[in-house]
Amino acid sequence: MYLTPEQLKAIRSDLKLTARQAAESVHVSTRTWQAYEAPYGTASRRSIPENKLELFCRKHQLSFPPTRLDGTTHTQNAKTLALLGATGGSGRTKVAIEVGRILAKTGKRVAIVTDAHYLTQSRCAFDNPSIHCDLDVLMTPYEIRDLRHQLVKAGVYEHEGNVTNDEFLALIYGSTIERLERKEATKCTLASLRTTNDYLLLDIGRNAELARLVSDISVVFFDLDRPFMLNATQRTFGELLKKSPLEKDGPPLVALLMNKDSSHVQEKLGNYEGIWSLGMDVLFTSLSMSYKREHDRLEHELAKKEIKEQKHTAIIDAAPSSAAAFEYETLVRELLTKLNCTNSDLN
């Protein structure tokens, strides 16, 4: 795999290891390790063999490969959580806000990148976490190239980059064209958000492949109240689980059970039985329907006050003693444990 000498040295420095200690952990001489970290063009420069790099990662409890797709390493400050779902309306965005606010209230800097385009900073009753539309964040260095290639392949763009005169194709691929135009115009990147925040929450729907490559942990929302939820989850994430055994490759992919107290017993039992066949770990924490009831109550209270421009308010702020707030705090503690964070992150 591709790893620059600067990235390798940064990983070692983050682990507070000397070159000698790093060398001993993979059974090579100190001089050989120094050659791995030598700048390009240096006579002694050598690339670290993949088996040595994997051994180094395993011994020091790092993910392998140790870099994300955007070039940042897993040891860098900002921890990245991806929130995924096979269907819309599973509560991902609401959970992202609650998790973000819980972390923010401890003094952490948090950013949310969301595909819920109705959610903007001006419509929120807080400024931490910061809210970013996914259309205005360059997720990987290759995203613009890949979008262009997709449009050229579909016949929407010519190889020179000009849009064809086919109005029908332009209509079909209108959202992709808009995505490309906004990505080309933005100056915000996922890598830059990592350098200015402690936590990054990616509310990115079904994009499991992107989540696997750029996140530290991916959470799949599994709604026990919905019929056919198992089939939808299998279609969306099943192939990824099969071709990338999670214990060997990539960040953890875990399931979060939603609406555990649903009255739809038939759907709930079927989903309960099927979730274990997917090969994902299931979080011990699950969310009951209390979060829905609490959100409905807050919206009803705002409506009674006849506020023209209602702003998104987190339950953890408006009802910190509620059952829903307790569930959210428990969820955050478990996620931090999965990320190998200390309890001081919530104290």
Which residue ranges are poorly predicted, with pLDDT under 50 across at least 5 consecutive positions? 244-248
Question: What's the pLDDT, averaged over the residues?
Answer: 84
Report the total helices: 15
The termini sit apart by 39 Å
CATH-scheme architecture of the largest domain: 3-Layer(aba) Sandwich
Beta strand count: 7
Describe the structure.
There is one protein chain. The protein has 15 helices and 7 strands. 44% of the residues lie in helices and 10% in strands. Strand 6, helix 12 and strand 7 form a beta-alpha-beta unit. It has a 7-stranded parallel beta sheet with strand order 3-2-4-1-5-6-7, with helices on both faces. The chain has 3 domains: 5-59; 79-136 and 189-346, 3-Layer(aba) Sandwich (Rossmann fold), CATH 3.40.50; 143-185, no CATH class.
Give me some keywords for this one.
347 residues; Rossmann fold; alpha/beta; 3 domains; 7 strands; seven-stranded parallel sheet; single chain; 15 helices
